[in-house]
Amino acid sequence: MSDRQNSTEVPAADDFVLGLDVGGTKLAAGVVSADGRVQAFTVTPTGAGDGPEQVIARLCRLARDTVSSAGLRLADLTAVGICCCGPLDSRSGVVHDPPNLLGWGDVPLADLVAAELGVRVWVENDATAATVGEWRFGAGRGIRDLLYFTVSTGVGSGAVIDGRVFRGGRGNGGELGHTLMVADGRLCGCGARGCLEAYASGTAIAARARERIDDGGHSTLAALTDINAADVARAARAGDALAHAVWRETTDLFAAALAGFINVFEPQLIVLGGGVARTGDQFLVPVRERARVLAMRPAGEIVEVRQAQLAEKAGVVGAAAAAFDRVTTGE
Ligand SMILES: [Zn+2]
């Protein structure tokens, strides 16, 4: 955050933001124009075991290389947007020991990158960034109230309310994946029991199938050493009863959760991304139909449920979109 005296001008089509995606396994970078086009998209392994200093040095090298591959100079950038797994403070740009970046402690990521690159930097929770990406440049363009979910290893989420990005007090708000669904239920990665994520994440889908097999259930999945959510989806499509039951239970529970969120937010649109949602209609159709039935009227009748559009560049585009949002709103 080299400069917090934000201008509030709306970005022009030739404004560029560098989007950086800091993940536990890979770092990604891309130059994103104000109309959402991505240039010089680059990915490199994080090497998280090397610790924060080395990873940030690697990130800054990737940033410089990507900007020059796009035929630009750092001075041509309006801002740098970084998305990173939380917890973090999006106002100060400090990352607080994320679970997928061991040994990071309290790292002033925005300050360190801004000092190295000489460009103003904003850091955003990865689920919030993905939400803003879909809102500005993906499935949610032009929508005033939307919810976004990424259903993959975990269940991340974010919200746009009244045409504004919802961040909560420090940028970690909108964690709908940790809504309590089952009292004293399954243990969640967050340490609580019974969260939506503990049932509907890809990891949880695979674990629930494995548990049914271990309890004596018959399934074609029993032959596999490692089961993942894609295996469960495939087996369910092929008519495997155990896989089908797990899938049905997942879509029922996810739909019940969405019905609650629809009642709270009355969104026009819910966007679903991540590996589980990429199974397409197998996930989307039952979730959409059931959620609309369970939700109150008229909210349940007006809400649309669509698949996310940004796919593998979601992190980079989302990070850039969130930075554009900061430039535009001055928030
Ligand atoms: Zn949880």
Automatic annotation (TrEMBL):
It is an enzyme of class 2 (transferase). Keywords: Kinase, Transferase. Its EC number is 2.7.1.2. InterPro entries: ATPase_NBD (IPR043129), ROK (IPR000600), ROK_cs (IPR049874). GO terms for molecular function: glucokinase activity. Belongs to the ROK (NagC/XylR) family. This is Transcriptional regulator/sugar kinase.
